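3.2 Worked example (two chains)
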Amino acid sequence: MGSSYDAQRNEFCAYVLHESETPYGLLLGNYKTYAQSTAKGGVRGLWDADTDQIIFGTHHIAYRIGDRTFFPHEIERDLTFLPYAQISEFTLEHRVHVTEAFYVPHGSSFDRAVCFVIDVTLFNPGAADSEVSLYPWAMLVGQRFYGEPEHQVRAWNDGRFICSKNLETGGERWWGGSRAPAAVELSLREQVLLEAMRHGTLSKESEAQTFGDVTPQQAELVSRRIFGAFKYRISVAPGARESLRLAVVYHKEGTERSRPVLEALLHDQRVLHDTQRYFTARLADARFLTPSPAISRGVAWSKANMLRIVKEYPHGWGATNSPPSDILVSRDTSWMVHGFDYFWPEFSRRALAVFNDAIEENGLMVEYVRGVSGYKTHYDLNINDDSPLHLIAMLHHYNATLDDAWVREHLAMIVKLTDYLLSQRDDRGLIYCRAKGVDLYGISSWRNIIPYYTLDGAVTEINAEAVFALEAAAMLCAIVGDTEHWERYGEESRRMREAMMDYLYNDDTVAFVLNYDQDGNYQDNFTADEIFPVLFNIAEETERRAILKRLSEADFITPVGIRTISTADAWYFPSYGFGLLGGVWPDLTLWYAVALARNGMTDEAVHFLDVSYAAMEGGSPRNTVPGEFAEWFDGGSLSNRGMYLSPWTGAKYLWAVAETIGGLNGYRTSGRPHLAPLRPKDWQWIAAARVHWGGRRCTYVIDLRNDVIYGDMPELSAEEPFTCIYAGRDVSDEVTTSPAEVGAIAFEDETGAVRIFVGNHLDRPRNVLLEFRGHTARVDMGPGDLREVHLIGKPSDRRARAAKLDVLRPLARV
């Protein structure tokens, strides 16, 4: 397997691999759909965000050349994974090269079309004509859960396309190609179609058991399954290329909203180009460039994952916790906001709005909302992590946008949510959960899906978040001049922190208890949940570092991240409860990395950012799809046991990079960008391009050798001993580098003088060619080098303006 990284143009990042090196293909999507590819070129699970339905079966293509038909399982493919497409390549009988490009269209024309496209290209390198027959086939009915096909579907073909219609809902899916087919067939039996393909006998004159029209009554005879197939006959001249585009389009409102879209897709030659352009524009933002090749790749692919999961549901924008689905979880949304704020803050605001509108009348934040129906639930818990995390996310988003009017608009909601949080304290002053059941109904924690498990009462995780949420609420109130609530919530935060140290912290073990439950029993198991009082600075530095040191020992640490509990714990099992009792969750590892960085353990933090993404690149041995962030790993085998694309992990990775080596602090409210650079061992530089922060895009270079930060922000401050230089406007997008993995940040000042900073990865020396507006330069760079190159004029250093001091007190010890 090979990987390529393009620092300037993230859309060109790629993994090139043999099909045996990945367990699965890419999950792609636009605003209204997902479609999942396989390593064998199949496409399955086309899904509709407006109905939360999988509406098309798995799509395959067989090929016939000479007297032999090749089915997908008989073909070995080389794959290229791109942020927006999956490319499959193979050769038939050493005679015809085949390329299949699978993608879900994006861009203004098709970003809300429930569809997918496969572009097939045939190349004949020989000296004689080649005749190739293509046989696309698929199941034509949808299913919400696999094995439960939809009812009342009629299917027919019109000689060119196949349509299957749900007679109950009126929804239609249209399927076909850009060429006229030689044959179109429907069948109740997939094997009949396969046999016809195998012998090359699929034709308009096919015998019984294939149909031109299938009724729901006929489909009921075979568990409501209906299959369709096409035959396309293509002659490829010597040295020539021929193409065929296949597409499926669905719309819940029937023919007028589906067939015209299919025809437009089949004839629009810019669909793939426009999809790439969409990713080009988006991926240009939040480019964190680092000397670490793995972290740099991780940032680029985290954003690609984030773009795929954004959906527009009938009840608002969001990203589900389990693609494809319409379940929008408050906890997950709050953490996603931390990453999206740096990349796409408009989505953050829309996703938060769904939950701003979903708060219960008494002020409790719900657990999840269904994006289609609007159904919501809190699992009968009086309190969970959803409430404090929403307040924290609100503060983070404010700092990304500096939109006072937005805070003012939601002040009543912020007060309502915070007052409810305070109302759930026990007589010791701690947030207290009175659960009435087990697992989902009995766990007040992020680890809320452990079967038959209970974690309630005063839970350390929830209280740590609540302490900080009160400070966040105080800050939000202060922003809009609500002094009364600012002072009250700040004081309540201080009291709750003291209560945590009095009742949840053990001096003899130098750690927090897990909880004390409704029966008054303390659980003092040392688990990775200790990370929360460290992350939110509940204890003093000595205690925080002691906890982090204990978590760094061999019973927690693995080559792919940190286990949820120790291998020595009586509850330990490497995979039970979705890995929450001993498995490795990348999200936990990222919290751990941020906590390490905030407590002076910079090199350790960088190590876990490195290994977190390296695990995602492991491919088949790790059961991960390169370029996608996996959900969780077995704590023993260290292979992925969860989703291939975890919807929340990519955003969390971007957040972790931004708020560690990126030098940003999403909880610092100052009214201007402020950087606190870290100094990883052997690093000379860190850079970022077009990062959303403080209501604008920010581009900067941190020169760790000389303690200087160059940026395009006229107002910029930094921790000592760094000096901040306003270098002019960002013109980095005009720079081309070769090799492409070398990043460049360029600034142009008012005189037209341009300085270009070039940063090399640590893995090896490189000779770099720079091109900017027709000017070129070559630079020899050692591993990890940073060079400043002047191609136009002589730029001069000008200090960034000394911005006003913080007008608000900083969040307590964060």
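3.2.1 Second chain
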Amino acid sequence: MTTVNQTNQLSKQACENESQLRSLEGGAATSVNFVNKTSALVKVYWINYQGQRQLYKDLKSGESYTQSTYVHHPWVVTDEQGGCLGIFQPESERKDAIIEAFSGQGQGTSTQAPSPESSQTSQIGKIVVNADEWTLSNTGFTQAPDTATFVTNIAKWFTGGRSTGKFHAYSTNFGLTESVLAQTIAKAGYTWTTGKIIKFDLPTLLTYDGIFLCGDLADNQVLIDYVKAGGNVYLGAGTGAGGPQQEADRWNTFLNAFGLKLLGVYNEISGNQPVNSSHPIFAGVKAIYQNNGNSIVDLDPASETTELLLTHTTGQGLIAVTVSEKTSTLSSKPTESSQTQTPLNNVQIGKIVVNADEWTLSNTGFTQAPDTATFVTNIAKWFTGGRSTGKFHAYSTNFGLTESVLAQTIAKAGYTWTTGKIIKFDLPTLLTYDGIFLCGDLADNQVLIDYVKAGGNVYLGAGTGAGGPQQEADRWNTFLNAFGLKLLGVYNEISGNQPVNSSHPIFAGVKAIYQNNGNSIVDLDPASETTELLLTHTTGQGLIAVTVSEKTSTLSSKPTESSQTQTPLNNVQIGKIVVNADEWTLSNTGFTQAPDTATFVTNIAKWFTGGRSTGKFHAYSTNFGLTESVLAQTIAKAGYTWTTGKIIKFDLPTLLTYDGIFLCGDLADNQVLIDYVKAGGNVYLGAGTGAGGPQQEADRWNTFLNAFGLKLLGVYNEISGNQPVNSSHPIFAGVKAIYQNNGNSIVDLDPASQTNQILLTHTTGQGLIAVAVSDKTNTLSSSELTGSSQTQTLWQIGKPGKCGKDFVPAGGWQQEFTYTVGVDRDPVNESSMPFLLVKPGLTPKPEREGKPIPSTDKLNIRFVLERNYDEGELILFYDFFGSEIDTLFLDGKNLIQILGEGEGKLKQNQIPLGALAQGEHTLTIVTDRGTGSHWIDCLRLLLKKSQEINTQESKQKEKKEKKEKKEEKIESKEEKIEKKEEKLRRKKVNGKKQTLLFLNSAAKRRMISTIFCKVGVGF
């Protein structure tokens, strides 16, 4: 028995008062130094805002640690069994809490925690997954007489053999709400309640011995935290709610965290299924009833924590179990430093608005739908609870959030509006805003989840075309799934003003909004009162959706404060990741096949440690790709400590004691990995192991990888042998080739990002080695830079105002055209490059007077640089007509996306290219949206000699002057142009395509070029 030394000056209350205590918001920051002078382990708990204990530290005999906290936050110290030894109330100054041996005089009172939570005394959280909901329905009990034994066994397994306990079915589905199940549970001695009547958060769930789920959506992160805290969950699938894929999506975030997965198809297995398992839940059970459920997959068959207990003769999993050792570091725990005052402190509900398309809030959207200003103002008021003041940031470079009318509207309504990827994208930063607006640019989905759960508000515009529709959906669905929504991975081809018929506050006074081919939205839980599709097309496709989340005090992104002890990572500011498509690279075979492998792995170690030749690495794996002898010898020879195996506790505090964690094959907690990298940790991941098949391999790691802009494909790539390296990245210094043998190729989800990169690709374009870093850096935006007067043209294609029309090369449409700078004698006046860019799939192909026009879907421009160029030296001038969206790539990496000025209007762009190395480069241009095709006017690559950087004010002034001069020229020619256009229109109407050769003078030829560019290609 132990107690607390009373000579300490901290306010201390008797243990019997614990039931009356809870933490309060606000108060001065302080700290407490806990010192264990006993001969036994003691436990330090924070008493949270609900009056519940949250374990922060197991303090061994002789140990001490300092805990950051607040003056209104009480702490309780207990023995190993949870008996209260003393309660400490922090003061404004740091004080010691000395825990000494119990004197036997009654200073301490060994009481248990208030509101006893049976799951707190259980050391293992348990899960039972059933492919089908019919098992526990009245029909299931009738069809399979042993069902009563089955469900009683589950209750006993959940309670550790006790015949008393408290269970709740968070469901309205018949599979958990019918009479025989309730009678069976009650008859066995347990308390049974049903319905979505309880608050679904961790403190509430911890008051139950088990939660039963079926059909109705529940917060997957809360479930993960509950099981990790020792809670028990029964999940019945196959309900038909939303279809099989939505059913699987509803639960797989939760299940994946424990090595299981539901398939997105129903299995057509029906009838009594014979049982042949010795697991306790099947004791005395001969068969259970199933009726067309979602089969279960074990993502890590080698794991001892997960098991498929019942499989069909076809091999499909019907019943599975998994266990999770209770951890003291729950992902739902906040750092107390998060409780600082922010604009959100008085906002109790986090809100989300999802728009299928980005065009709504563009200048075009405001023009097409006059009520757009009302719409966006309504959103701002909804986010702020009706206030006319607030602070919003658009974390985006996409035109859908960065154009002028939106900014003016927000400002006119009284709110502060900023844009760009210029802020640090983490929870503390986001909490300083009343709302975050997103469109196109990748953002950390877990941070967004935490932000909304903390009371933050998010507007998301989809349908941007960045990476294609499936990547667009993948970019946001982790975030949206957490709140019951999902984007479809195809564009919906819905365009034009969409009439509004909704009484929701964001649509007050709004008759219609504009859409242009977005990603439709799906409500994963139509029965939920927290999500709603407000605007649907006549085809039933969702266009605008909202969802709300009650503010919670337990945020999933917060580390436990005990993790703030000194670790090897304290001086490392950037977490780094190396992903290898295949595990064979670091095997003994890999070292033999590719002699530079030793250099490769040493480079990785140095990159992880910031160049140090000392450090500590652990391979959390039993796979040969990380456990064979040559790798261990190489790491040791380089001066580092190397250990292997699943022998360490896989939580954040443990991982932070290592300079890097190496993974291969064996399942690991993806959220812990995300937190580790964000805390400065380093991870090497080898895929392609064959464990469970390629799709399961990808599923095992993609939650982690997606958080940093990467993804594994769910098929093996059949690439084998030494792969030649052509990269200047530090991990490839001195490396000519590495060995691969049929791995999972890697995809870069955000090619425009500077934080992730595919370093090694196969000749087929498949990614083999990729890296990522957690410290976000700004990427180039579409902001125009004004060129200095001291410039040199490195190359130019076409002449401004000509559209390449004076000299038309032979040929018609080509799917892809590659133009090499230097092949033409006169590229300015007589270029062989097609100047007409066409949207892929456009039909019919462009013609004039029945003859094909030289055009292409994809234009590649190859050029060679004679030397290395630094950041800011090179500027690409790209001018084009039309309303289309052009995407430019440089050497295969997304450079910029540009929205045209409008049909017949010229858009002039100046794009900084960043630092480029000497040698060959390729600029690629493709187009989309608009009318499907447009003319390129001119392309120039300029060297900016002057180092002077113009201010934004001077840029805007110069642009304005150019625009005014251009308008003056246009006005002076307006009358002549209108006459010519009228003649041309009359000729087109009459079907008489008359020749224009009578215009022989140079002036007339210039006039025709201008008209051709402005009118288009159909004449």
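3.3 Remarks
The chain is about 25% helix and 30% strand.
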